[in-house]
Design goal:
Chain lengths: 245, 246, 482
């Protein structure tokens, strides 16, 4: 139960401004999730993930979010539902996607990051994640927290490791997971959004020639350059929206 | 409840000069709570403008007098909700539940409306000049909803009474578990929900659509050329054969 | 076959269900001397036959029939040498209860910590609603509307009236909202957490249908999720809307059916609730599927401790109110609920019984006689219980609308069997007796205020109750799991 935001730059000239754009978006969803915050930023130099408990705005200051550069980012503010409020339980969840040397589908995505990982933020709650967690564990994919959203990240990474492309993995996720979810997912080259079939949690997408942004609430879009000319729409339930660079 | 006798407004935001009888409230310097209290204190006939709304929630909720309020920009959830008698005009998009539980008066959105537009509205008119997303008109209880563009899935879910006019296309599961509300769609219907069916258009329907389109200010809807969707009433009573429908 | 015929056949069959399985097993009336079958005993056979015949699930009123750990499994450690009791009747023991003082300009102030739960006009007759409102006002406590809106009789009869905001939003409107003394956003009920409302056609008469904007006579089944928000992040915005529409005057309660109580209480608080109402699995209902009533949620005993601990962990004990409901019957129940951390309790079925539910007779004042002034007239209606396929003392047939004593009905002739003034007097008597029992036990524990009862005043009779309430098993210092 949270606020989420994702930003994907089509125009790489905006790379220097990504941090300030994401800061505004995080501010716009801060009230939805006062307990903790996190960001993931994909830059040609690698993937940076920061998360912490406490006020999202103070967090943004602390990590100098506005000063960060990048091409793609996720941001999340959390109102904890069924798991504890700790930094480990903060989104974005990160999962390694490369198949393991022994051929098992995908290893856990522990630090350090190599930039090939998948990142996920989630608004909502799953109703059958425990079973999927067990199935993943049986296949050698372990989770680090009891958080339901982490299961989705591991699941997607495992599917990618097994050869699905991101769109196929997300379609499979909507068929496999019960519950309410708006998900935003990033990889080294892609940005994707998907919602559950009932569409119980909010999601708004705005797109221009320069960027595409997904947020929980419209106000989180305010301040993005060129918003007045953006195409703004709400993603259809169950449909996978994907942008790749 | 104490009534404020004079309208509260911020002197620093006084672009009220261009229309002497319009009060301006600036959300850049006032809280939502303060602005709403001031709006509720206005006498019938008053006009107000709320500037810098910046997508804030719960603007102009619970109004009960015949005032006119213009929200000069995007509004968040429940704008104009739980209202009666007032006319609220949003100059931008609106969030979830615009005009929810409206009793009378009008809420107009000059842009897109998010989910559950006019949810459970008992009366009045909610106009969306753009598209409305999921569950528009859910649980409608007698109010009217007019959407110029498309509506998303589950429009009119459990709608009990009232009228919905869709100027564009309707998404899947239109009118699921409908009671006595009636839906008119000018464009395409992607799919009907459980117990909803297409019915013949009568003269009374044409008149209702004409009136609603006129009130909403829609000139792109041909009242003769809409699809009427209403309840087949097969879920009104417990019936063993209907199990899958529950 | 008409609905009514179907109904009575169904009612007859559920007569078997009146006896619990354990009761049946202990009866040695087996025809051939062999013991009653445990897995497929007579009630189970009747249930299967019923489903086979009707092709649907049984529906009924009241809460869970089965025995679950409850307040009877706890005992109070009243004073002796180590602690001193207060004198009954003479020494003060406060019962005043304040709810929702954190944000609301006008918190709810009650003379006793015992309130009347939300029961809809529709499930109850207008007379029953009025009687409950009058009784609550007479003893200085609150009553609550229900899934169907507020009636003027109820508003004027009730000094403190809590207005429910339910998924159906039947009859919900800003005028009544502003006339309320508190608003209760209902996420669920203990009898059916996760399920929607239900009112069968025979109770959807003209007035009820009008208030709910429904066609007369429909079998109403309403939504289980609210139409304009889902989840605590959006509930937070909804609560703010209610506050704006009521000028931040009155407290906002959030009512949940007891399932994942720890999380749900935390989230209700995060969403901005001033008071959390937790309804355990024994909680009553006007009409719900039997499968829901018997098989969902957790016992009130477990729920109260989880809820109180969640509030304590948040550091909000006393700031966010906790109301507990589901199977509260006596002053002892009240005292134990308060000791476990509730600020107040809420009652549904018990005040209906005080009104005359399950009595073999109904009573009316004699012509020209004010209510309660004389013996009045008393009419035996046992035969009507029999016609419903039940008997006085066993009835849970509220869903049929054919209540023999005029409480859960919309039939004018039946409803006339309940005199609001007489009913109010009985319910007020009952509530007063409960309050007296509560203070009696609190005084015996040495407390000058019923809210000073604490978990350490309790021990458990069974291991199960000790584990759920997290108090020691009597005679030991053992709390299972600790
Ligand atoms: C006849 C009846 C109707 C009820 N209607 C409602 C209702 O409209 N809304 C609600 O939240 N709870 C409703 N309830 C549940 C009560 O509010 C309360 O949670 C429950 O009765 C408490 O348990 P108890 O009956 O064991 O005291 C109803 C209960 C009964 C018995
Ligand atoms: S007597 Fe009336 S109120 Fe009591 S259980 Fe039977 S039908 Fe319900």
């Amino acid at each position: 139960m949270c606020g989420i935001a994702g930003l994907h730059l089509k125009d790489h000239a905006l790379r220097e401004r990504l941090g300030s754009m994401v800061t505004g978006m995080l501010r716009g969803v801060a009230e939805r999730g006062p307990d903790s915050a996190g960001v993931a930023i994909h830059d040609p130099g690698g993937l940076r993930v920061r998360k912490d408990v406490g006020d999202p705005l103070a967090f943004a200051d602390r990590i100098d979010l506005a000063g960060q550069t990048g091409l793609r980012a996720l941001a999340h503010t959390r109102m904890a539902t069924e798991s504890a409020v700790t930094a480990a339980h903060c989104h974005p969840f990160v999962a390694g996607t490369a198949p393991a040397a022994d051929g098992s589908p995908a290893p856990p995505g522990g630090m350090p990051l190599d930039g090939t990982e998948l990142c996920l933020v989630h608004n909502g709650s799953f109703a059958n994640h425990a079973t999927i967690r067990r199935r993943l564990a049986a296949a050698g994919v372990t989770t680090e927290t009891d958080n339901d959203s982490e299961v989705a990240a591991r699941y997607l990474a495992a599917r990618l490791g097994a050869g699905d492309d991101l769109a196929a993995a997300l379609r499979r996720l909507t068929a496999t997971f019960d519950g309410f979810f708006t998900l935003a997912v990033t990889t080294a080259d892609s940005f994707a959004v998907v919602r559950d079939p009932i569409g119980c949690k909010p999601a708004i997408i705005a797109e221009t020639d320069q960027w595409v942004a997904m947020v929980s609430e419209y106000r989180a879009l305010l301040g993005l350059p060129g918003l007045a000319d953006a195409t703004v729409f709400e993603p259809e339930p169950e449909e996978v929206y994907l942008w790749a660079s | 409840m104490g009534e404020l006798t004079t309208a509260v407004h911020d002197p620093d935001s006084a672009d009220s000069a261009d229309s002497a009888d319009e009060v301006v409230f600036d959300l850049a310097v006032m809280s939502t709570r303060h602005v709403n209290a001031a709006l509720r204190a206005l006498p019938a006939g008053a006009r107000a403008q709320v500037v810098n709304p910046a997508g804030r929630h719960n603007l102009a909720v619970g109004l009960s007098r015949a005032i006119r309020v213009r929200i000069a920009g995007p509004a968040g959830y429940y704008v104009g909700g739980l209202g009666a008698a007032a006319d609220v005009d949003v100059d931008g998009p609106a969030g979830w539940g615009v005009g929810e539980n409206l009793m009378s008066g009008t809420v107009r959105v000059r842009g897109a409306a998010s989910q559950s537009a006019a949810a459970s509205a008992h009366g009045g008119l909610v106009v969306v000049e753009g598209d409305a997303s999921l569950r528009a008109g859910i649980s409608l209880k007698g109010g009217r909803l007019a959407v110029a563009g498309d509506v998303g899935r589950y429009c009119a879910f459990l709608a009990q009474a009232g009228t919905i006019l869709v100027g564009g296309d309707a998404g899947e599961a239109l009118g699921d578990s409908l009671y006595e509300a009636v839906i008119y769609v000018a464009g395409r219907v992607r799919g009907l929900g459980t117990d909803a069916r297409v019915e013949d258009l009568t003269d009374a329907d044409v008149a209702a659509v004409r009136a609603l389109a006129a009130d909403a200010g829609f000139d792109h809807v041909d009242p003769q050329n809409v699809t009427r969707v209403a309840s087949a009433r097969s879920l009104y009573h417990f019936d063993t054969a209907q199990h899958a429908a529950y | 076959m008409s609905r009514y015929e179907m109904m009575s056949r169904y009612e007859m069959m559920s007569r078997y269900e009146m006896m619990s399985r354990y009761e049946m097993m202990s009866r040695d009336d087996a025809i051939d001397g062999s013991p009653v079958h445990h897995t497929f005993g007579p009630p189970v056979i009747a249930g299967i036959r019923e489903r086979a015949e009707l092709g649907r699930y049984p529906i009924r009123g009241w809460g869970a029939r089965r025995a679950v750990p409850d307040f009877d499994d706890l005992l109070l450690l009243t004073a002796s040498a180590s602690r001193y009791p207060l004198e009954g009747y003479r020494e003060r023991c406060d019962t005043r209860t304040v709810l929702g003082a954190r944000r609301a300009a006008r918190p709810v102030v009650l003379d006793i910590p015992i309130t009347i739960a939300g029961m809809s006009f529709g499930s109850l007759s207008a007379n029953a609603k009025e009687a409950l409102g009058r009784a609550a006002s007479q003893v200085g406590t609150s009553t609550t509307t229900g899934d169907g809106g507020m009636t003027p009789e109820e508003r004027s009869a009730s000094r403190t009236l809590v207005y429910q905001c339910l998924p159906s939003r039947y009859g919900f409107n800003p005028v009544d909202l502003r006339a309320a003394d508190a608003v209760e956003i209902v996420l669920g009920q203990g009898a059916k957490p996760g399920g929607g409302g239900m009112l069968l056609g025979q109770k959807v008469g003209a007035r009820v249908a009008g208030m709910r904007t429904l066609p007369e006579g429909v079998d109403q089944r309403s939504a289980s999720r609210h139409p304009d928000w889902t989840g605590p992040d959006d509930l937070k915005i909804k609560i703010e809307e209610i506050r704006e529409a009521t000028d931040w005057q009155v407290p906002v309660y959030v009512k949940i059916g007891a399932t994942r109580v720890d999380h749900d209480v935390r989230l209700a608080v995060a969403a901005g609730a001033d008071v959390v109402v937790v309804d355990g699995m024994q909680g009553g209902t006007g009409a719900t599927q039997d499968a829901f009533i018997e098989h969902t949620g957790i016992p009130t005993l477990a729920a109260v401790r989880l809820a109180a601990d969640a509030l304590a962990d948040l550091g909000l004990t006393g700031d966010v109110g906790l109301i507990i409901s589901g199977g509260v019957r006596t002053g002892a129940d009240v005292a134990k609920a308060l000791a476990l951390g509730a600020d107040a309790v809420s009652l549904g079925v018990a005040p209906l019984i005080a009104l005359g539910c399950n009595a073999p007779t109904y009573r009316l004042p004699a012509a020209g006689e004010p209510a309660g002034a004389g013996a009045g007239i008393e009419v035996d209606v046992s035969a009507e219980y029999t016609a419903l396929g039940t008997a006085p003392g066993h009835c849970t047939h509220c869903h049929t609308g054919a209540c023999p004593v005029g409480i859960t009905t919309q039939d004018d002739a039946l409803a006339a069997r309940l005199d609001p003034a007489l009913g109010a007097r009985r319910v007020a008597n009952y509530l007063r007796a409960l309050a007296m029992e509560t203070t009696m036990l609190a005084r015996a524990c040495g407390k000058s205020d019923v809210h000073r009862l604490e978990p350490e005043d309790l021990v458990a009779l069974t291991v199960e109750a000790a584990a759920m309430a997290r108090v020691p098993l009597a005679g030991t210092d053992w709390i299972p799991g600790r």
